[in-house]
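Pasting two entries for a bug report.
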Amino acid sequence: MFTTDHLKKFEQDGFVIIEDFLTQVEIETLRTACSDIVDKLDPNEHKCIFTTTDSRQASDLYFIESGDKIRYFFEASAVDDKGNLCVSKDKALNKIGHALHWLESSFKEVTFSKNVADVCRVLNFKQPVVAQSMYIFKQPQIGGEVKPHQDGSYLYTEPMKVVGFWIALEDVTIENGCLWFIPGSQTKPINIRLTRNPSGIKGAPLTYTGPLETYDEKDFVPAPCKKGSCIVIHGQVVHKSEQNRSSKSRHIYTFHVLEEKDVKYPTDNWLQPTSSLPFPHLYQE
């Protein structure tokens, strides 16, 4: 499935689209599993808003302690000033994260599949582990933008060895918020990091460190893809997505794999393994 041509493009551009990564049955299984999770959600118990356009999650323990749990994050425009939803809960969610890959069987099966393991073997991962996972909704009309970033800013390793799997559960278009990349930017070092802040500077448990990054909009290229496709994303390639102003949602499932062999995962990374959920190994052999 991950061919020589895929590898060449990944090494050249920092990302590559693999079509038909999931079957229609697998797609529907994940969509149904997510629907069941949302049905059980009580919005009164989960009122966290997620956005990349401000730093509110940096002081929210609900977000910070989500690595070994399934937690729910709403679009800012779906919640009024009293914290009540303005739309139905299934239309208000930004994402569900960050341990779907381990705590929900349907997502676990896809994450630890032969297809994923084969890609990582071709990319020369020796002891890969899965750090976190998300179901992202990109809701019609209100789906928020994701600012330009490198995944390594959030899942930093020394040396850098991080790859994202971004799987389309619906057709992904420019109109409903596809990813945009700066091809070749995977050679760019990680200068900004989201880290734990033990000293409590500025009163937030997390803080961004490093210089402000700016990018030229003309350098970005869109990466629309068909339902069932997977975009394999280098941890250093710069990418973003725009707001969804269309009438169609853009559901995707995504997770990140880190190398564990001869690689340091700093203790000040925002996301940390826990006693209840150490980062599980991908190769289940």
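Entry 2 (this is the one that rendered wrong in the viewer):
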Amino acid sequence: MVSPAIALALLPFIVTLLIRYRHYLLLLYRAVLVAWLRDRLTGTSREQRAFQYLLAHAIPGDPHHILQTFDQWCYHCEHLSCARATSGRIVERVLLERAPLRVLELGTYCGYGTVLLAQGLPPGARLYTIEGDPRHAAMADKVICLAGFSEQTGPAAGVGLIVGPSEEVIPLLQEKHGLMNTNLVFMDHCKRCYLRDLRLLESHQLLAEGATILADNVLFPGAPHFLQYAKTCGKYHSKLHRASLEYFRTIPDGIAELRYTGTH
């Protein structure tokens, strides 16, 4: 048992830690503890609860309003990791500047990023999005349909959802799914997979020369090996956009923007 004297001596240090890391503690509370408790009480996942909120409040067929409704849920109800704020603006800028015809998204999750990408695609473009979790993929498919981007409803003829681990799907993209190469890659899946999957894209010649790679959350939770490789391998012009974690303005984060040169 800790003596009162030691406890009093440690108190300023503990208070300092609580003040310094209060935003991360709030994230832990909202993203983990609250979600766990509501999962148990309701018998549904937070992703399912978010989709029910979309059904009740979003305008079907209006991608912009669906993204806004997602944001409202994440700000005021429960936390979901979606590409919003700075990341969303960078995605929209790249889509406008580059007008990519072949886009690959790694990490569909609930479909937020897919809708964000799909609404900015030029005519005739094709978006491939890969999700490893079948439960998340099932919800994302519903969100894509709600936004009017299903393969059965016209505007979404350019959106294809592929379910499976990225390390298994990427080697099959050319032969099985018809993606010969891509002009834009958006990474928002497991951060420790960023470098592995980037090298898979390289080895299978899936990056067109001049292709742009956008990688979200490279500072928090972080992808240090990916960033180091991008800076030192000689194949990319890279820059880091400083941002904040989605729906937590006080937690610093960043999105990496790489331009593939094809050189070694």
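Dev reply: Rendering is fixed now. As a check, the viewer should reflect this: The radius of gyration is 20 Å.
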